[in-house]
Amino acid sequence: MHEHSFIEAILSNIENRENVSKITIEVGELVGIDANHLGEHIIEKTGWDVSVSEKKSKVKCECGYNGEAKILQRLHDMVIFECPNCGNAPEILQGKDIKIINVTYK
């Protein structure tokens, strides 16, 4: 269960966890976990109201392409992608992180 490491990393960054009522998280589409799946597991573990959104990728390639990555395959813990223009490996500008956007306390 690789989502356990994602959940533990998120929870370790939240102070005063026993008083949390809601958390808002943004999951990049190039992170190796489905955003909704992650949200469900956080709810199961904490009982909090969890709002999760997916952040679209943005990449930059040597060929001059700037835009969303072409996702080839989603595996258990990784995403395989390429530049949709030339097929090379582009630089990731956004969509590779999990971010805590907001924490609401009781």
Task: For this entry, give a set of tags.
3-stranded mixed sheet, single chain, 106 residues, 8 strands, hypothetical protein PF0899 fold, elongated
Layout of secondary structure:
Layout: H1 3-12, E1 20-28, H2 35-46, E2 49-55, E3 58-60, E4 66-67, E5 70-74, E6 79-82, E7 91-94, E8 98-105
Parallel strand pairs: 1-2
Antiparallel strand pairs: 1-8, 3-4, 3-7, 5-6
Fraction in helix: 10-25%
User: What is the residue-mean pLDDT, rounded to a whole number?
Assistant: 93
CATH architecture grouping: 2-Layer Sandwich
How many domains, as an integer?
A: 1
CATH topology: hypothetical protein PF0899 fold
SSE order in H/E notation?
A: HEHEEEEEEE
Biggest pleated sheet: 3 strands, mixed
Derived structural class:
alpha+beta
Question: Could you explain the architecture of this structure?
Answer:
The mean pLDDT is 93. Helices cover 21% and strands 40% of the residues. The radius of gyration is 16 Å and the shape is elongated. It has a single domain (3-105), classed as hypothetical protein PF0899 fold (2-Layer Sandwich), CATH 3.30.2320. It is built from two helices and eight strands. The strands form three sheets. Strands 2-1-8 form a three-stranded mixed sheet, covered by helices on one side. It has a three-stranded antiparallel sheet with strand order 4-3-7, with no helix packed on it. A two-stranded antiparallel sheet has the order 5-6. By secondary structure, it is of the alpha+beta class.
